[in-house]
Amino acid sequence: MAEAETGTTGELQAKPDSGWTRLRRGLTKFLIAAAIAYSMAAGYMYLNQRSFVFVPSGDLVTPEDKGLQNVSVETVEMADGTKTTVWTAEPAEEGLPTVIYFHGNSSNLSGRWQRFKMILDSGYGLYAPTYRGYAGSEGSPSETAIISDALEHFDRAAATGTPIIIHGESLGTGVATAVAAERPDAGLLVLEAPYTALVDMAFESYPWLPVGLLMKDPMKTRERIGKVKAPVLIIHGTEDAIIPVEHGERLIEFASDPRELLIVEGAGHGDLWKRGLWDTVREKWSSSQP
After folding, report:
1. Which segments of the chain have a pLDDT < 70?
2. pLDDT, tens digit, for every residue of 194-216?
3. Superfamily of domain 54-288
4. Residues forming the active site
5. Which of 8, 30, 104, 257 has its CA 20 to 30 A from that of 284?
């Protein structure tokens, strides 16, 4: 009897995978894994983004603990009932301004006491609120909430009749600009190490993420500063490793006159006050007065 031929209809022999098929399957698995990893990373950043922007820490001590004997601690209730803490002091003389100070994203209000002492030693008044969610205040921070609070704080300080300097530090530069854009009676806007927008900084740090879609608090200072009627003073250090000096250089271009940009050679993010910032502010205030 003759042997059965191979390849007949009796049994079908499986062909071995070609190299292209194996490559395609491997590539598909890789792309699926990459998509899952990307989605997880994007989801994590979206859910936790405010913990990167707002970083409160430490306990809020009293002004007396820092040697600020003439500073009062006030609890101010916002329009929605949230209670916030404010440090206040009146100017030493009539006609001197009050500095409304919007602090940076880390630590808390009492961490700026040395700066406040310099302000007070000049005879200027002080109105320094702390943000929602930070030591001494209720609630949770967000761009909308802290700007709304800041406008209320400005109105409260301005109601005393004192001239107003709005000072923003780092994160607070976006808050200060938003207030100055809505309150044309401000006398001077000082921006210490500002950013063009928080969303711009996020894009620089995470260019692989669609930060424009994910960002809850974009804080677009560049879109607000052109509405500011008060003189604008931007001070930035060349060695700023937190907010690069290029942000200050770009931001001044969006501002209206009178405007001034001071670049401090060799200064970092947190040492501008040690390099003459406050003297510059005082000189700018004096020269802007009629």
Report:
1. 1-17
2. 999 999 999 999 999 999 999 99
3. Alpha/Beta hydrolase fold, catalytic domain (3.40.50.1820)
4. 170, 240, 269
5. 104
Supply the pLDDT for residue 290.
Answer: 79
Q: How many CB atoms lie within 10 A of CB 27?
A: 10
CA distances in angstroms from 105 to 123, 131, 149, 198, listed in the order given: 27, 9, 16, 12
Domain ranges of the chain: 54-288
* 3-state DSSP percent of the chain in helix, strand and coil, to 5: 45, 15, 40
Could you give the 3-state DSSP secondary structure of residue 168?
A: strand
Taking each helix axis as running N to C, give the angle between helix 113-121 and helix 277-288, from 0 to 180 degrees, rounded to the nearest 10: 40
Cβ–Cβ under 8 Å, residues 107 and 174: no
Contacts of 261 (CB under 8 A, 6+ apart): 234, 236, 248, 249, 252
Give me the amino acid identity at 171.
L
pLDDT digits (tens, 9 = 90+) for 170-190: 999 999 999 999 999 999 999
- DSSP annotation of 25 reads H
DSSP 3-state of 235 = strand
What whole-number distance in Å separates Cα of residue 175 and Cα of residue 104? 10
The pLDDT of residue 20 is 83
Whole-model pTM: value is: 0.89
